[in-house]
Amino acid sequence: MTASVTTPPAGSTPPDPTHSAAQPLAGRRVLLGRSRPADPFARVLREAGAEVDTLALTVTSPGTPEEVERAHALISSGWPQWVVVTSAQTLEVLDLSRLGTSEETNGGAVRGDSQDGVSARSCEDGCLLLPPTRLAAVGPRTAHALAAVTGRQPDVVGGSDAEALAQALEEAGVGPGTRVLLPQSALARPVLAERLEDLGAQVQRAAVYTTVTAPASCLPPAFATHWRGGAWDAVVLTAGSAARALTELAGPAPASTAVVTLGRPSQLAAQAAGLKVAALAPTPTAEGVLKALCQVLERQAPPP
Q1: How many Cβ atoms from other residues are within 10 Å of residue 104's Cβ?
Q2: Helix H or strand E encompassing 31
Q3: pTM to 2 decimal places
């Protein structure tokens, strides 16, 4: 995936500044630090009147073959009682399609009488079928992507950060002895694994991918110059890696550009990268980002 800036489709109706109530971001230019087809974030902001440029600041790279294979082997063995997915990017490198709707695809076949005290039923050739693996996801986007792959809704959908998801998993019964597979980025904070281990769970982390800064050669011409010159009223950062990449590629945000982050982890990463965060989206959704942008930009003078 390469970094690119896109603007509203040719022929689209330009924002009408006279309809400020219906289009609270009319006349504003926003940089969205990711680039995805039919991105709901870009759509919602454009419907609110903003001119939105999307820029892929990072690229996803699979983890080592050994680490990805280890995660697949754990799933195939039926070891995890829970698989916890913290980013839709996990699904780009890890095949979770076998965790479907039937016990035959959900449960792992294991020889013997039991596995760590987990109840199981016998199958015809003397193996045991474990209960279906339960699924958890961070946020609605990851939950939707996980459901598309597995054909069933996650059992738990947590908030936008590790703390909220850990609490949701505890409420769902994760505790002493629960076996949890946590496939995630090599850059992920250890908070979720540590919280689950504090509950007594057996956690296997698998670094199945990592995120790296996009090559500078993939940036649009003079992007860094435009960035430092304050070409955007605001930038929306949906991941900590995007915050780090932006400062690496173009430097800190100018005073006239408000920085809005999607969740607490991206806020912390942005601050660590030297960015002054103006607002944190109240919910990790397009509507939450819109609300944060409206509140921040209301305090700024409108563009001439």
Answers
A1: 12
A2: strand 29-32
A3: 0.71
Q: Report the first-to-last Cα separation within the chain, whole angstroms.
A: 36
**Contact of 91 with 183, CB cutoff 8 Å:** no
**How far, in whole angstroms, is CA 218 from its chain's centroid?**
23
- Beta partners for residue 205, in sequence order: 182
Question: Among residues 42, 37, 104, which one has the least CA distance to residue 238?
Answer: 42
For Cα atoms 42, 47, 49, give the angle at the middle one, nearest 5 degrees.
100
The pLDDT of 270-277, averaged and rounded, is: 96
Domains and CATH numbers, the chain: 29-57+216-300 (3.40.50.10090), 60-97+132-213 (3.40.50.10090)
* Segment among 82-91, 120-129, 143-152 with least mean pLDDT: 120-129
> What residues does 182 pair with on adjacent strands?
205
pLDDT tens per residue across span 202-224: 999 999 999 999 999 989 999 99
Distance CA 269, CA 279 (A): 14
- φ, ψ for residue 150, nearest 5 deg: -95, -20
